[in-house]
UniProtKB/TrEMBL annotation:
Record keywords: ATP-binding, Helicase, Hydrolase, Nucleotide-binding
UniProt xrefs under InterPro entries: Helicase_ATP-bd, Helicase_C-like, P-loop_NTPase, SNF2-like_sf, SNF2/RAD54-like_C, SNF2_N
Molecular functions (GO terms): ATP binding; helicase activity; hydrolase activity
Domain called Helicase C-terminal: residue spans: 533-695
Protein's name according to its UniProt entry: Helicase-like protein
Amino acid sequence: MADGWPPAGEIKAIFDTTGRTRAIARGLLEDHDRALAEVHSALAPLREEKARGELAGIPVTRLKDVTEGRLRLGGLEDAGYTTVLDVLEAGPYDLQQVPGVGVQTERQITAAARQVAAAVAESVAVRIDADARDARGTALVTALHRLVAAGPGLPGAVETARALDRDLGTALTDAAPARGRLRRLFAGAGRRDLARVALAGLAEAAADRDAPRLVADAALDLARRPADAAAAWIDFELQSPAYYALLAELTGAAPDRARAEGFLPHEIAARVNAQPLDAAHRRVTLRGYQEFGARFALAQRRVILGDEMGLGKTVQAIAALAHLRAEGAGHFLVACPASVLINWTREIARHSDLKPYKAHGPGRAEALAAWRKAGGVAVTTIDGLHALSAESVAMLVVDEAHYVKNPVTRRAKAVASWADKAERVLFLTGTPMENHVAEFRSLVTMLQPELRLDAEDAVAGAQAFRRAVGPAYLRRNQEDVLTELPELLHTDEWEEFSAADLAAYSTAVQAGNFMAMRRAAYAEPARSAKLERLKEIVAEAAEGGRKVVVFSYFKDVLARVGEAVPRATGPIAGDVAAAKRQELVDAFTAADGHAVLLAQIQAGGIGLNLQAASVVVLCEPQVKPALESQAVARAHRMGQVRTVRVHRLLAADSVDERMLALLAGKEAVFDAYARRSDVADAAPEAVDLSDADLARRIVSDEQRRLAAPP
């Protein structure tokens, strides 16, 4: 240190450490570039095929639009050139043989066709066909899988690696004279001063452990051997939104920005886009519109997220909570209907590393004590919120917030009390607020009382309404943001038995009656937790004008659903003649707007086209998984123009959970190797997972569980 420089050994260590860090960063960037190149290579033929298909459907007369009507195309049509694709596939010589088409006209026609082709190529969206699983689709899924499997933190790690490569590269060059005395001796004073500053920066970088660890972990994840085709396809079916989000990003096929931003005023959208979103505590990849939703909740602080059912409001809320946790916040509260409480605890644990606490039921006091001590997310019911003393939390999330629209009710007062003490508040509702101005005004008063809302704002239309209430309200519809429509979205709706459900279930278990166990959740309709959730799903579908098909194995369950749900028709059952079944389907399809069709899954799941339905409810899990797949396929098929949302109603700590646990291990293998085979399609029972032993085992397990002391 006599000359003011660190010891030679220390300098060498700084250069070695930062050199290794830069090498790892560059390696990640190179691997990432190769992975992207593989995706683009696999994507190119699929996009070309899709574009050709669209061009084959565009009549040649559309070329007049490109040239503002200057082209004469009658001769082309007479010569058999009926589509834009026909023109593109013909050469100049062939086109010039058409009467009335000279060199100049041929050039204009070709240029116009190429202009249309370029517009189509830019806008074409590729859908991945999990049913076909051909070579090109498999190549794309496998290439995407490598990036998806690296986790939602990969984009952030790549950006960190890019910054490290740039900054360390510059600093290593600038600090080069510091490597030895002779170098410093022959460097000018200015060069030595630059080297001192750069060396200090390298020393700081060498002491940083977080950024290099983030990059190294991502490099290891990305360098893993690519999955085989079967594993990639299974993963695609399990988390297709992550694949489509990545695909949209790489192809530029993201939804129109104004739609994805809910038609918010520009100044609000700009503020939201400037809001950071830390993914450190998140375990899920968000689509662009979902990232915007989470940023909106953070930037605007006290808001309503009103996305249409199926767009992932829960995930957006969890992303906002995870960001606040990364900023140091520790305590969050979710208030929701009892019917979705289990869903919330599971989704929080699945999509983040935040710890959920079920602050409801007999263990509520213990859960709250643990939450207050360790932090995390307390999840309670809206109806039970009044029994908890309001305290400060970093964010209060209220699901199905339209339940608190009446400010004089006890539940609304409890929410308002907690909202007053919360740093941020996020209300979630899939009910379109445009048609409920008074209700919306009541909710906004809890959040942003200074925001005025007049009835004429709603009368002016949905987009005008959203702009007027932009500071507090964000809503997107499926058609606005899901560019790969139609998509199939599965949700397992976990419910807790009501007291009546549990009594009926216990009786069925004691009797060893497997079928009675499966439908015990509907034994007393007035006190059925599953039926209550089903009614909520149907009501939300009705708000959006969507048609619903409800499947159950049991006719008596369907009868109870029919009594509880308005406008329900059917059921389609095994004892209903084929002609009558078709009449029921035709009437359901022809109904204007919302309608509900009931069907026994073993009857309605085969041979009928139900693509008029965009919401499917499965009243219970099936012993034969193929039955569920066939039933859902009745709605999710060619001709379906809306995203299909599948809700499977499940009771926790019951036969439902035991069935899923026993079937889960084999089902992935079944999906990969059997379901797509000719034998499986022709006779699913030949490869299905069900047998009499399954029922006996579940009955025995449940009898032991319920007989055991608590």
